[in-house]
Amino acid sequence: MKPGPRILVVDDDPGVLKALRGLLSDEGFTPVEARSTAEATRLLDAPEGPPAMMLLDIRMPGETGLEFLARLPRPLPLPVVVLSGEASPAEAVQALRLGATDFVEKPPSPERLVTAMRNALALGALQEERERLLDALARPGHLVGDSPSMGSLRQLIARVGPSDTAILITGETGTGKERVARALHLASGRKGRLVAVNCAAIPSTLLESELFGHEKGAFSGALSRRAGRIEQAHGGTLFLDELGDMPLELQAKLLRVLETKEVERLGGSLPVPVDARVLAATHQDLARAVKEGRFRQDLYFRLNVMPLPIPPLRERPEDLLPLARAFAAELAGHQVPLVLAPGAEAALRAYAWPGNVRELRNLIERLNLLRGEGPLTLGPELVAGPQAAATASRPRLGDKHYREHVEDFERELIRAALQEGESIAGAARLLQVDRGNLYRRIKALGLPVT
């Protein structure tokens, strides 16, 4: 019989280990035991790879379970369910914030623990599948598009991907800079992970700790040592998205890391060697930012060794249909075709796509959400979005009173909601209004009640 998934149990209590050993074996799992976080670390780094998941006790002598959880790389290398009979509510919350999928009190009931484990394994499988799909889509051959610029981009990625050269990816918002970064990482052949940091999404007060890590006690709330994102990218690739939003003082620290290949954690005194290939991306004009004093010139020169611009979607109309079909297959499945109504392709090419590839994907996602049975049908009226539709149907001002114009618009809005929601209750849910109020408004506007 094939052995079941390996479950790492980290607990210093022999009685707990014995009880869990029996329970896991009865449920078809293969228990792997560690009585300290040091033993657990060795098992996570074993040649056969990490176990399928980990059951982690919080209270142990030496390094605690929370401290161990805090120093693991992000994302966590395996799903974690935390066990404890003495943890405070604050510790339980901290465990979940550190990435644990569940918190189970000791002594756990078999049903509660098995449910938590199966949920954690299912979540881990979903995350693995998501990463696999992202990696597959990011391969140079899977950067979708038939335009000459996309062909040149794929060739450039294949050529510079295996090097350790820093690359600056530029392009408007939504052009697919992170997907290009993933393709470069896969082409590099590096064994480590791609660690992405969105410099605009993390508050400047937290970004330093997030990037460089910290030692225990470095600041209020630093309860344990934590490796930063730069350390986590050791052996792999560090992707700094929206680099133009990084504060100047952190730019100086980042430049030092790039030059010395060492990082110093906050509160630390010893540098930590780091081998990470650095990719950066921005939608800003960094050359202008340098002139305006918002970006360090030396860091700009250090990162801009190999500039890699991504053209906006409006400049590569040949990519519209291949991208739309790829997104349709991704969202609805390969068995659901994308059908273009008359005039749809012309509308796709005529629209400027200010949101670029992301906006096109959002359109296909919206189409999929509204789809009934049958194919995804794209009509020209859906392409330019609500603003263009509103402009096309703008009433002639001066023909009616203001209140009449408002009521006309309200009738059309409610008609559309009734058609899509298929009932007053469904329309109320779509419009996020009370059903009784919507019913009274329908009668007041003279609309038929269905």
Structure description:
With 450 residues, the protein is α/β, with parallel strands linked by helices. It folds into 4 domains: 6-127, Response regulator (Rossmann fold); 139-311, P-loop containing nucleotide triphosphate hydrolases (Rossmann fold); 314-383, Helicase, Ruva Protein, domain 3 (Orthogonal Bundle); 402-444. It has helices at 14-26, 37-44, 65-71, 89-97, 110-138, 148-160, 177-188, 204-212, 229-232, 248-260, 286-291, 297-303, 320-332, 344-350, 356-370, 380-383, 385-392, 402-421, 424-431, 435-444; strands at residues 6-10, 30-34, 53-57, 80-84, 102-105, 167-170, 194-198, 237-241, 262-263, 272-273, 277-282, 306-309, 338-340, 376-378. The strands form 4 sheets. The chain has a 5-stranded parallel β-sheet, with helices on both faces. Helix 1 links the parallel strand 1 (6-10) and strand 2 (30-34). The radius of gyration is 27 Å and the shape is globular.
Whole-number count of domains = 4
C-alpha-based Rg, rounded: 27 Å
End-to-end Cα distance, whole Å, is 60 Å
* Poorly predicted ranges: 386-393
